[in-house]
Structure prediction request, 270 residues.
Amino acid sequence: MAVLAKERSSSSHWYTLAGEPAHKQPKAKGGGLRPTTLADARRINLIPSVTTITSIMAKPSLERWKLTQVGLTAYESKPSTDETAEYYAKRIVSQSMESTDEAANFGTEVHDAIEKWFTVKEQPPEELEVYVRPVISWFAEKGLEFVEAERRVVNLKQGYAGMTDLVARGKNGQAAIIDWKTRKTYPGKKVKPYDWQPEQIAAYAAAYWGEAAIEEGVVYGANVYISSTEPGRLEVNSYTPEEIKASYEVFKDVCRLWRWMKKYDPRNAG
Prediction:
């Protein structure tokens, strides 16, 4: 009988008021670290990440994707004669989660290679070049100017923090926030943003460029999707200043809902 992977505990992401990551806390017994909890945040004055805030909202597209991964795993791995139905179901879910982890690890490798190119002009590893080169070409074709990458941002007014993938300026000095995403794609099928990705971009934009810039309508955004299944394919979902502004208004509403649900106001953490 197959051995199940250890069940993982979900965790939220938290930051200090200065923007330092505080995702883990020391265990009370036995040493080591554990995920930071809401109780910890209240006790030591932490603020939640953008994704922690949006996690309270339904994400139909993401849930469909997760169910699809479970279905594909079940299709590729039939039950053995000595497995009960319950054990088989648990094994399929476990294997599906492992597959998701592999995809996440690949995404991290691509993110790191892109960051190193923009920050120190380090050439991407040969096995990742086909994924990174289209990003570099797109950036140059758009006439964008690199500002900085992997910047932690904090918005104390709304009580959230996070990490931007890349900050840029356009040909005429327009402000922009760009987010890289690795995704499975299918020939002839357009890539669409997952739920709450535009709001995530808008939240980072407000934290980095300031809420006044959002109000003035001078900030652009983009989700750049790098295909993991069609090497070399790149798709971009761009957001106008008007879309960024509208998405930020929605995100602020979600912040208010999060504070009410959690009975914790990180704006008062200081």
